[in-house]
Specification:
By secondary structure, the chain is mainly alpha-helical. It contains 21 helices and four strands. It has one domain. It is 66% helix and 2% strand.
Length: 443
């Protein structure tokens, strides 16, 4: 026990093993919903739900333990909400990639982030992209997730003929009522600050769905976990389906989302734990970012989307977690949760949809830190945030934000404020948006 205390620096950080165990358990409880929610989102792309649930728990467990042991921070990782939506709705349903091809994109962007971390290029990228755009990306993903939640809950649908593009669906079926009841339960648990509110709401809503006949327990129920998704990725599919330029921009856009989301989460949680420097920097952040980037690769390679550091880690910090041992506890619990994965197939979309709505709201709250009244920041932020859900494509939102930000700076004569990397990316996105016209003109 003394060896553990020494390795994780219990004395130096003013904690003990009991506190760290309690913190690790708390973090797991507020994150466990992802074991069911991630497969639910990816099911739109045709994934094997129970197998995806097992792989989700497996990768979360292994990478969270790695974060604790390597970086010694109370940070937990799991499949990132938002990027899994990109995999299902943008890459597979929108761009026509196979599910394996979409996971190949995740592996590639994870490798790209890893290289950037190893060569120390993160500072250059962080300095190049305006803070307002970074925050707008997070808000836009939140709105995208919220929109998916309402669609999965059957509350929004596309009408025949497509005019208007979407219409509300008023309660007319058991599934509609189950979703509304689940949303009410989710919001109530959250505002009452009940720990593990999301996983409790998913399980309770699933019971309601069973009682209402919306879902049922299968005739054959296999309790042995399946890892059929592991190794299901294809690195070449994105290039053959989209072409070189579109493929590179798609990988780059997802990389931006992954990269900046992690930076914000790590900085915030470290500051809350009292582990950040006075200037807000995080000691040893290189190790944190390295584990996080490898988690993206691992998630894609396991066929369950990018894994990233979770803001829910703050719950464990609030319970006193100050070292990586809390993460080790959380990771072990995720590994044990693999044996719960067979029940994932019972949980219907209407049971996880309310959790998506609430997660979307939580990500939306970042908007408070965006100077929307400043036209130079507000217009690009608006385009970034709104176009993601409207087009069902995160890449389009990011591209519109980059191009409009550079354009406004040029019009206002502020060329000196545009980093060279912003020029490169903005021009690349202009070509990306015009690629169909360019190809038609050349042909």
């Amino acid at each position: 026990m003394d060896g553990i205390a020494s390795y994780f620096k219990f004395g130096e950080r003013g904690t003990d093993i009991g506190t760290e165990v309690r913190a690790g358990l708390t973090t797991f409880m507020v994150m466990a919903y992802i074991i069911f929610l991630n497969p639910s989102i990816l099911s739109a792309a045709g994934i094997d739900v129970p197998a995806a649930s097992a792989a989700t728990a497996l990768v979360a467990g292994v990478m969270t333990i790695a974060m604790g042991v390597v970086a010694n921070y109370p940070l937990a990782l799991a499949a990132g909400l938002g990027i899994n939506g990109v995999v299902a709705f943008t890459l597979v349903l929108g761009n026509g990639l196979t599910l394996a091809g979409a996971m190949g994109v995740i592996v590639l962007e994870g490798l790209l982030v890893t290289v950037l971390v190893l060569v120390g290029a993160r500072e250059a990228i962080m300095n190049a992209v305006p803070l307002a755009l970074k925050r707008a990306i997070g808000v836009g993903i939140g709105l995208f997730i919220l929109f998916i939640g309402f669609v999965n809950g059957g509350f929004i649908r596309s009408p025949e003929g497509g005019i208007p593009p979407v219409v509300p669906v008023f309660p007319a079926s058991p599934a509609n009522f189950v979703f509304i009841a689940g949303l009410a339960i989710t919001i109530a648990l959250y505002v009452m600050k009940v720990r593990a509110a999301l996983i409790i709401s998913i399980l309770v809503t699933t019971v309601l769905a069973l009682l209402a006949g919306v879902t049922k327990i299968p005739d054959t129920f296999v309790l042995t976990p399946s890892f059929a998704t592991v190794g299901q990725f294809d690195l070449a599919d994105v290039f053959s389906k989209l072409g070189l330029l579109a493929a590179l921009l798609t990988i780059f856009s997802i990389m931006l989302t992954d990269f900046f989301d992690t930076m914000g989460t790590v900085t915030g949680v470290a500051a809350e734990a009292g582990l950040a420097n006075p200037d807000g920097s995080v000691p040893g952040i290189g190790r944190v970012l390295l584990v996080d980037s490898l988690a993206a690769v691992a998630g894609g390679a396991a066929g369950i989307s990018s894994n990233t550091t979770y803001i829910e880690s703050a719950a464990g910090v609030a319970e006193g977690g100050r070292t990586g041992f809390a993460s080790v506890v959380t990771g072990v619990l995720f590994l044990l949760a693999i044996f719960l994965s067979p029940i994932a197939g019972i949980i219907p979309a209407v049971a996880t949809a309310p959790a998506l709505v609430l997660v979307g709201y939580l990500m939306f709250t970042i908007i408070r830190d965006i100077p929307v009244t400043d036209v130079e920041e507000g217009v690009p932020a608006l385009l970034t945030m709104v176009l993601m859900p409207l087009t069902y494509d995160i890449t389009v939102g990011i591209g519109a934000g980059f191009v409009s930000w550079v354009f406004i700076k040029v019009v206002r004569g502020k060329l000196g404020e545009i980093h060279w990397l912003m020029w490169v990316v903005a021009i690349a996105f202009v070509i990306f948006f015009a690629k169909d016209w360019i190809q038609g003109y050349i042909v």
